[in-house]
Design a protein that fits this description.
Its EC number is 6.1.1.17. It is an enzyme of class 6 (ligase). Belongs to the class-I aminoacyl-tRNA synthetase family. Glutamate--tRNA ligase type 1 subfamily. Catalyzes the attachment of glutamate to tRNA(Glu) in a two-step reaction: glutamate is first activated by ATP to form Glu-AMP and then transferred to the acceptor end of tRNA(Glu). This protein has 501 residues and is mainly alpha-helical. It contains 21 helices and 12 strands. The strands form 5 sheets. The chain has a 3-stranded parallel beta sheet. The chain has a 3-stranded antiparallel beta sheet with strand order 4-5-8. Helix 12 packs across helix 13, helix 16 runs antiparallel to helix 21 and helix 17 crosses helix 20. The longest helix is centred in the N-terminal third of the chain and has 17 residues. The chain is elongated and about 105 Å long. The N and C termini lie far apart (89 Å). The mean pLDDT is 94.
Length: 501
């Protein structure tokens, strides 16, 4: 039975070092955020460190805009890091594009140790040899160049060929113990010597990623299941890095489950709306609610419990307790959990978070003092009723406009005697001097429920539509108090007039 590398790290506690190392391509997506979250929580749980590194060696796809969006995403989510871009640390720089000299030094050490060798074979030659030897083409490179003589290398160079550099893969099984999936073995010969440096001298991602991990002392590599096949190459490379004196240990690996879309068994695509982190933010997710939900995509704090604080998450989280089975993104559950976290907010905090959404909806540009006071007074009326901050403008928009527009379904649901009800409301409220919710309710209950003998559900529908334009709104009597007696009477009269016109 194969055994893991004897120099696999035993780091724990404050010695734990994990990393989040995205490529700056496209918008941040929830699968990426789940990876960042688990790494962050594992570091915080252990008292270790999170390193934020940028893998920007693909000049054709990487962009500074995408990098700024990554930083914006982590900042909004309040996922902080101990070393890395914009923070610094002992292993600067933290962008691959700025570390070429460092990689060159490691390449020279591996050449000197014999771990790397020059390879001149091109694709056509590899295919021809495989065909001649009865070997399937899909097996790829046949390790032909491992033992080229100096004369053969010189002859290739005379032809004008530049060599790629390949890693000499050990001719033995490679085994590691995945912290989520248990023991995994890659049989000897299951993959050939692989290119780590192109003929133009540029090292490949499969080289620089584990080299950076080694140089930065990363003890635990926590990443997505889709990267699991590359672990075999990383184990082979780590053995060479240890032999060359570049590092002293092999990290522990853990491969997190895929996040699937809401239907089917396909990985959540970057193109799926559920994958777009900023779309969730724009719709009104708060970071506490979204992170709570993402934490559940592969992990559980306990049976029959879905709601927890970030502090509780950190205290309970262990990567070994992550479920290896795929997790499915459920938009409705995510929104429900977000609503629970909205209700856990201090009322003042909730009110402050609604202001950007009210502004984005065009209810005001720079809010005046009076508008801010109104928004803060109204916030408690809707905090229990919304799941997303983006729902607040629809609920409170009636407070910030002189022109009420009536929803079609609200008008459709009015009873036949709606105009009569509204006239009764006006008559009941005109004498009220102390315009408080209690006094408003007493007056309307007497006029509508007692005198007109209407059921409350029917009685308060017409005034609700008149005041807010909606069938569902914040509490009616408190809404009337907020807009004041004069505006209340004007709106009641306006709808009554429209219905009798």
């Amino acid at each position: 039975m194969a055994t893991p590398h004897p120099l696999t790290t035993t780091a724990s506690g404050a010695d734990v070092r994990v990393r989040f190392c995205p490529s700056p391509t496209g918008l941040p997506h929830v699968g990426m955020v789940r990876t960042a979250l688990y790494n962050w929580a594992y570091a915080r749980h252990n008292g270790g460190k999170l390193i934020f590194r940028i893998e920007d060696t693909d000049a054709a796809r990487d962009s500074e805009e995408s990098f700024q969006q990554l930083v914006d995403a982590l900042t909004w989510l309040k996922i902080d890091w101990d070393e890395g871009v914009q923070v610094g640390g002992p292993h600067e720089p933290y962008r691959q594009s700025q570390r070429h000299d460092i990689y060159r030094g490691v390449i020279e050490k591996l050449l000197a140790s014999g771990a790397l060798y020059e390879s001149y074979s091109n694709a056509e030659e590899i295919d021809a040899r495989n065909e001649a030897n009865g070997r399937a083409k899909q097996l790829g490179y046949d390790n032909f160049d491992r033992d080229l003589t100096d004369e053969q290398k010189a002859a290739f160079r005379e032809e004008g060929r530049q060599p790629a550099l390949r890693l000499r893969v050990p001719d033995e099984d490679l085994t590691y113990v995945d912290l989520i999936r248990g023991e995994v073995t890659f049989p000897a010969g299951s993959f050939p010597d692989f290119v780590v440096v192109r003929p133009n001298g540029v090292p490949l991602y499969t080289f620089v990623n584990p080299v950076d991990d080694a140089l930065m002392g990363i003890t635990h590599v926590l990443r997505g299941e889709d990267l699991m096949p590359s672990t075999a190459r990383q184990l082979a490379l780590y053995a060479a890095l240890i032999e060359a004196g570049v590092t002293t240990f092999v990290p522990r690996f853990a491969h997190m489950p895929l996040v699937l879309g809401e239907t089917g068994n396909k990985k959540l695509s970057k193109r799926d709306p559920q994958a777009d982190l900023f779309l969730h933010r724009d719709r009104g997710f708060i970071h506490e609610g979204l992170l709570n939900y993402l934490a559940l995509l592969g992990w559980s704090i306990g049976p029959d419990r879905d709601i927890f604080s970030l502090d509780e998450f950190i205290a309970a989280f262990d990567i070994e307790n992550v479920n290896p089975n795929p997790a499915r993104f459920d938009q409705k559950k995510a929104e429900s959990i977000n609503g629970d976290h909205i209700r856990m907010l201090d009322v003042k905090d909730f009110a402050e978070r609604t202001i950007p959404y009210l502004a984005a909806a065009g209810l005001f540009d720079e809010p005046t003092h009076e508008q801010l006071v109104l928004a803060f007074r109204a916030a408690p009326l809707v905090q229990e009723r919304v799941q997303l901050l983006g729902e607040v403008p629809g609920m409170l928009g009636f407070l910030f406009t002189d022109e009420i527009s009536y929803d079609a379904d609200a008008l459709k649901g009015l009873p036949a005697n709606a105009a009569e009800v509204l006239e009764a409301c006006i008559a009941a409220l005109e004498p009220v001097t102390d315009f408080t919710p209690e006094k408003i309710q007493d007056a309307l209950a007497t006029a509508l429920v007692d005198n007109l003998e209407l059921k409350p559900r029917v009685a308060y529908g017409p005034p609700r539509v008149a005041i807010t334009g909606r069938r569902i709104s914040p509490p009616l009597f408190e809404s009337m108090e907020l807009i004041g007696k004069d505006v209340t009477l004007q709106r009641l009269a306006a709808l009554a007039e429209m219905l009798t016109a």
